[in-house]
Write a structure and sequence with these properties.
- By secondary structure, the protein is mainly alpha-helical.
- It is about 55% helix and about 10% strand.
- β1 and β2 form a beta hairpin.
- The two termini are about 25 Å apart.
C-alpha cells in the first residue's frame, strides 16, 4: 500500500471521533498495539533526540524497503510513533524521503500536542527520513 493510501485510512479513522479525548485514546491504543522493541535496540544510537520522553526507532532494510520498529516510555508518544511506523514502514527509502505526511495536519495532531511533544514528533519524522536517506544513498553506492 502506498504512503498516501495509508494516510487516507488514518484520516478516515480519526474522522470517526468527535472530540480530542477520544482521538488521544485511539493514539494510546495504537501505542499499546505496537510490538515491543527488543531491549538490545534501546540504546543511545536509536534514541530520538529532542523528545520529552524516551523514544527509540530502529530501522531495518529488507529487499530494498525500510522497516521500522520503535518504543517509548510514554503511551501517547508510543502511539504517535506507531502512526508514523504504520505509514512509513515497509516503504522504499525514496518514498519515505519524499513523503509529506500531510495526515498529521489533516487530523489536527500537531495543534493538539504540547510544544515539547510537537517538537518530538518533528524529530521522529526527521530521524526516520534520515534513516531512509542513508539507506537510499547506500543502495545507490
Amino acid at each position: 500500500m502506498k504512503i498516501r493510501e495509508i494516510e487516507e485510512e488514518i484520516i478516515e479513522e480519526f474522522s470517526l471521533f468527535d472530540d480530542w479525548m477520544d482521538k488521544y485514546n485511539y493514539i494510546i491504543e495504537v501505542g499499546k498495539n505496537l510490538d515491543n522493541l527488543d531491549e538490545k535496540y534501546k540504546q543511545e544510537k536509536y534514541l530520538i533526540k529532542g523528545c520529552q520522553s524516551q523514544v527509540w526507532v530502529y530501522p531495518e532494510n529488507k529487499d530494498g524497503r525500510l522497516y521500522f520498529k520503535a518504543d517509548s516510555d510514554a503511551l501517547i508518544t508510543k502511539g504517535i510513533v506507531g502512526l508514523l511506523i504504520r505509514v512509513l514502514s515497509g516503504q522504499k527509502p525514496q518514498d519515505i524521503v519524499d513523503a509529506d505526511l500531510s495526515f498529521i495536519d489533516e487530523i489536527g495532531l500537531k495543534e493538539h500536542l504540547s510544544q515539547t511533544r510537537s517538537n518530538g514528533l518533528l524529530n521522529m519524522i526527521k530521524q526516520m527520513k534520515l534513516y531512509a536517506l542513508a539507506y537510499k544513498t547506500k543502495q545507490e553506492a
